[in-house]
Amino acid sequence: MEIVYIILLAIIQGITEWLPISSSAHLALTQQILAVQPPILFDIFLHVGTIAAVMVFMRNEILDMFRALVKADMGDENFRLAALVIAASIPTAVVGFAFRDFFESMFLDSRAIGTALVITGIFLLICEIKKGHMTVSIPSALLIGLAQGIAVAPGISRSGATIGAALLLGVRRESAAKFSFLLSIPAIFGATIFEAKDASFVGMDNGMIFVAPLVSAIVGYFTIGFFLRYVKEKGMRPFAYYCLLFGALAFIFLT
Fold this sequence. Notes:
Blueprint: H1 3-16, H2 23-34, H3 40-57, H4 59-71, H5 77-98, H6 100-105, H7 110-127, H8 138-150, H9 158-168, H10 173-196, H11 206-234, H12 237-253
């Protein structure tokens, strides 16, 4: 695959993984438009970059949670946050693995992806109605994790589903976004490990192995910072309109 396509796909991954507009939909549709079909391992390396981005950006929160878990200090707020991330990851894994084959069948269906994007847009608009003031609890964490599991489907945004679910449950915007990004780490890491066991280096080149994760990591890092500031001040409505428009165009013109 040409290096310009590798860089383009890495930029798309770095941006759309963190904005509520579905990275899987953008990657799938872009690959269809460019008429390229990179190896599974290429997608894995793209996700390695996005994992690196969120771990560097949220390194302080991650270290605080790790220290609290090691100390087993249940009264520590960071221990509570780590427990919430663990609890939310359980329904994500169950739904993701149970419906994996069905979700994967959607990747080559532009009509299904377009429909899912429209659903994401409608969901984001609904979520904007709710004004939250709460923090994440165990019951809400389980529901947010369930939403993340459903977001394995291309077109259903992972960040949009998790942040939107949190907003509907009354969680503050900023808290919802930060929890979504922390929750992405075990989800992306687990999916990467699961996919890697069947992956092969056949068809891979240095651009896919080194350039792709580096570009997606750099772009992803700055996208996370931008989105946290933006969603706190202005909300999700512009991303909802984007999903509605992009989904309709994909349904009409890429079918």
